[in-house]
Write a structure and sequence with these properties.
Strand content: 35-45%
Distance between the termini: 33 Å
Mean pLDDT: 91
Helix content: 25-40%
Largest sheet: 6 strands, mixed
CATH superfamily: GHMP Kinase, N-terminal domain
Low-confidence stretches: none
Length: 274
């Protein structure tokens, strides 16, 4: 995240370590931290979970509401993602109005899910032009030790994959406080997940720590879905001030292609539980 202050000495040490292919925590440049998943952390949501990469932790929750559809998509449900970054997660995050980083993160995750076709929006229609389901995805940073983009992105997928449709009483036009056995309509074949690449010195790294993020030149978050065994980019967002040249871009695409073939089966198993 931007706004994290790291001393020049610390930056120099991080870059020197990376030149030798090492990181302070012993990982390789393209190695992720251990992941920890917990389901059902909130009893007030259609689905909820917590996801940790190392010490970085994000909560995700899904809520449903019945709303009037947008005129240009009268037979489709709607989707809204919010991300909250508060001082409990990082003392660089202020309380109050949403930070620009939170808005950006929410939009990146929203776009990756939306553009992949993961949610079957037409199956969320109750009555065309009048009533559709709206899916609210709330993401909350609990602790920031780097790479909130990927942690929040995975939490979003898990929360959506475990959501059950609530009971809607058409006579009273109200949502009952119980759930059906029907899952949220999703297309498993179109699931996408984030891989965020940072450039530190002359090295590309994945799953950065908070300090590594603080000294990186740029960040590129890429949402990937499966296309007959190959990576399909569904969304992309660059962050921070540094520029990406053609050689860097080629190296990034090669890196994410390699990571996709390794990570997609693992992410699928985490999300779907099998």
């Amino acid at each position: 995240m931007s706004g994290i202050n790291v001393s020049n000495l610390q930056k120099k040490r991080i870059i020197e370590y990376l030149k030798e292919g090492k990181r302070f925590d012993g990982r390789l440049p393209s190695e992720y931290r251990d992941m920890e998943i917990k389901l059902g952390i909130s009893g007030n949501a259609e689905s909820s979970c917590s996801v940790k990469f190392g010490k970085t932790e994000v909560y995700a929750g899904v809520k449903m509401a019945v709303v009037t559809p947008y005129p240009d998509n009268a037979d489709e449900g709607t989707f809204m993602t919010t991300m909250e970054l508060g001082p409990m997660a990082d003392n660089n995050f202020d309380a109050g109005a949403p930070r620009i980083e939170a808005i950006e993160m929410g939009r990146v995750i929203d776009r990756g899910i939306r553009e992949s076709g993961f949610i079957k929006f037409k199956d969320l229609c109750i009555k065309e032009g009048e009533k559709v389901w709206q899916v609210f995805l709330d993401l909350y940073a609990v602790n920031n030790d780097g790479n909130l983009f990927d942690v929040a992105g995975l939490a979003a997928l898990i929360a959506l994959a475990n959501a059950k449709m609530p009971v809607y009483n058409e006579e009273t036009e109200k949502i009952e406080h119980e759930f059906t056995k029907n899952p949220l309509p999703l297309d498993k074949e179109k699931m996408s997940f984030n891989i965020t690449v940072h450039k530190v010195g002359d090295k590309l790294i994945l799953d950065p720590s908070r300090d590594e993020e603080g000294v990186s030149d740029y960040r590129l978050s890429i949402a990937l879905a499966d296309n007959a065994g190959e990576a399909r980019i569904t969304a992309m967002q660059k962050g921070k001030e540094g520029g990406i040249d053609a050689e860097d871009m080629q190296n990034i695409l090669k890196l994410i292609e390699e990571q996709f073939s390794e990570m997609f089966p693992k992410i699928s198993k985490i999300v779907w539980g099998k």
